[in-house]
Structures are given as structure tokens and as C-alpha cells.
Amino acid sequence: MNRFAVMTSGGDAPGMNAAVRAVVRSGLDHGVEVYGIRQAYHGLLAGDIAPLSSREVSGILQRGGTILQTARNDEFKTDQGQRKGRRRLNEHGIEGVIVIGGDGSLRGAHALHRMGVPVIGVPASIDNDIWGTDTSIGVDTALNTILDAVDRLRDTATSHSRAFVVEVMGRDCGYLAVMAGILGGAEVVVTPENGVTMNEIAASLEDAYIRGKSHAIAILAEGAPFQGPELANFLQQKHIGFEIRLTILGHTQRGGSPTAFDRLLATRMGVYAVELLLDGHTGMMVARVGREQTPLPLAECTAKTRQITPEYFDLARILSR
Ligand code: ADP
Ligand code: F6P
Fold first, then answer.
1. pTM, to two decimals
2. Which residues of the chain have pLDDT under 70?
3. What is the pLDDT of residue 2?
């Protein structure tokens, strides 16, 4: 292989730049030309594809977001769009692609593989919902960002004897919520998986008030059956003792400089993805399993969704007392 391309796709995740840098420098080290596809599948269809030099990935290791930018694109979900993408790659002499992104992006990568393009996927999404890998690029940074916010909110909650509802991202997956609950010392965690009702939340928070706690934190996953404003209004009307405030962390969770863990994860995954591609593998995702990296079929990784270890729900409940 003489030339391959790299893209970042789906929601941006801290560490994507570190992965791009690793892919580019590793490719160049193997004597191969590396091209960047800007704005993911949207840029692929538009032919927004250009060579990347080592200098162009200088100074990005510590930067959040992605210098290649990202986009969502529905046309690429169609057969016609995928054929067009294949043509664009041919026009630029691209012989392989590394896709850095979340589960949707990896489905796109799998579609390219099915069309005969050599493809390797690298899991990057703050949601930690990608099957087969212990963790994805960006999860650790997002979790630390959430914890920083929760710690700050507890300071003000304690000062005013308030309860805070803190809504966190994660799409349909409650991983960030349950981990933030355990590590941020929340009284209640609500996720799409655990089926906690608004009445149960009210009872837990009221119980915390009666037991003399000076604050309470309820972490709510965005994919839970009810949203932050609805829950906060419900709790306010229940008169549980605490005054209620709501904080929706939103996209702050996606930004910021990647942690040391995410920089290393992204660097190792990027280099390994290039090795796999140049060794002739295709249709594979780089997975972190324990301390090792291993290739897993994209077909399998995109057909399933990563589940949260049940132990974590128990920890969140036991430690909330
Ligand atoms: P993420 O990768 O973060 O999960 P999305 O689910 O929005 O984000 O997917 C990102 C992009 O990947 C989509 O906008 C689309 O271009 C592409 N994609 C998603 N699902 C598919 C699919 N089934 N086939 C082809 N491309 C897909
Ligand atoms: O997949 C990452 C993620 O941040 C999810 O947690 C969230 O549901 C979604 O992306 C938000 O997407 P957008 O950036 O399009 O608002």
C-alpha cells in the first residue's frame, strides 16, 4: 500500500487529535503517504481529501476536538452514497482508510469494507458504548470533566443545603452517569438501564435530607426516560426538604485537553491501526482488552452494544448511603 487516508467522524472526542497524529506519523514512518479526509463522510463525498505532513500534526497532541473536523452525513448511509465515496477514494488514489469515531462511524467504516476498501476502525466516543473494547478514546477525559463539575456543584450545594440534578451525556448509554455517580459520590444515579422512577429519586433525596445530609446530587443520563427539567420540576413540587437546582453539562463534556490516559490510548490505537492496515488486515476495529490491543471484526463490534458491568450499578447504590 502506498497511500491511505484517515478521518475523524461522529461526535468529537478528546484524544481524536492524538490519534490522527499517531496515524500520520506512523504511516510516514512506514514510508506511506497519509491523506486526511476533512469532515468525515461528508468530506469524503465532497472529495475534501488532502495529504497530511508530519508538521501538520504538530502541536495537536494536547488539543481537544479534531483538526480534521467531523460531520454527520445521511447520504453515506445509502448504497448510492457509499458507491460515491468509493469513487472519491479511487479518484485520489487512496488504497485504505482509517476511521476514528463512534459506533455509527464504525458502521460507515464497515460499509466501506464491504465495498472492498481496506478499512480499520478506531473507537472514539465519550459514550463508551462501543462493543468489544474496554474503553474508547475520549471516555476518560469526559468522565474527568464531569467529575470536576460535580465536585464544584457539591461545594455550592452544601453551602445552600440544595439538591442538584446533573444531566450528563451518553446518548442511550448510562456509562458516564453511573461512573460519575460512583466517583462523584452521588446520592442517586438514573440511567436508561436501571429503571429508577421519579418517585424513587424523590424518596432517596428526601431520605438524604432527613438523615442530615447538607447536599444531594442526582446524576441523570441524557438517555433516561425523563429529562433534567422534568425531573427538577417534579422534585421541586414534592417538597423533599432540599431546594432543587438543575445543571445540564451538555457539550462541555466533549471539549478540553485529553487526559494522559486518553493521549496514550489514542497514540497506541493510532499506531496499531496503521500496522494492521499495512499488514493487510481489513474490516477490523482496534479494541483495548485488558492492557492489550487486539483486532476485532467491525461486523461484530457494530452489531452489538457494550453493556455496563452490573457491579457498577451495585457500587453506585451501596455507596450512595
Ligand atoms: P457516532 O460515530 O459518534 O456514533 P453517528 O451515529 O452520528 O455518530 O454516525 C456518524 C456518521 O457515520 C453518520 O452521520 C453517517 O455518515 C455514518 N453512519 C452511521 N451509520 C451508518 C450506517 N449504518 N451506514 C453507513 N454510514 C453510517
Ligand atoms: O456520541 C457522543 C454524543 O456527545 C452523545 O453523548 C450525545 O447524545 C450526542 O453525541 C450529541 O450530539 P450532537 O453533537 O449532535 O449534539
1. 0.98
2. none
3. 97
Instruction: Please report, to the nearest 10 degrees, the dihedral formed by the alpha carbons of residues 268, 62, 99, 51 taken in order.
Output: -110
Instruction: Report the alpha-carbon distance of residue 152 to residue 113 in Å, rounded.
Output: 46
DSSP code, position 307: P
C-alpha span between 260 and 195 (Å, rounded): 34
Residue among 127, 129, 140, 262 flagged as catalytic: 127
Instruction: Give me the pLDDT at residue 287, please.
Output: 98
314: its cell numbers: 451495585
Beta-ladder partners of 97 = 5, 119
Would you say the CB of residue 171 lies under 6 angstroms from ligand 2?
yes
Which residues lie closer than 8 Å to 55 by C-beta, 6 or more apart?
none
Cell 500496522, residue located: 275
- Nearest to residue 271, comparing CAs of 261, 260, 263? 263
What grid cell was written down for 247? 445543571
Pocket test for ligand 2, best of 125, 136, 171 (most atoms within 8 A of CB): 171
Considering only CA atoms, which residue is closest to atom 13 of ligand 2? Answer: 11
Residue 321's pLDDT is what? 79
Domains of the chain: 3-138+258-301 (3.40.50.450), 142-254 (3.40.50.460)
Fill in the amino acid letter for 19. Answer: A
Kindly give the pairing relationship between strand 119-123 and strand 162-168: unpaired
CA dihedral 202, 206, 208, 210 (to 10 degrees): -170
Q: How far apart are CA 44 and CA 36, in angstroms?
A: 10
Cα–Cα distance measured from residue 321 to residue 314, given in angstroms and rounded to the nearest whole number: 12
Distance of CA 214 to the CA centre of its chain: 33
Q: What pLDDT is attached to residue 84?
A: 98
Report the run of H or E that residue 119 belongs to, with start and end.
strand 119-123
Span from the CA of 107 to the centroid of ligand 1 (angstroms)? 6
> How many Cβ atoms from other residues are within 10 Å of residue 54's Cβ?
13
Among the listed residues 136, 182, 191, the one whose alpha carbon sits nearest the alpha carbon of residue 14: 136
Q: Distance (Å, rounded) from C-alpha 123 to C-alpha 132?
A: 10
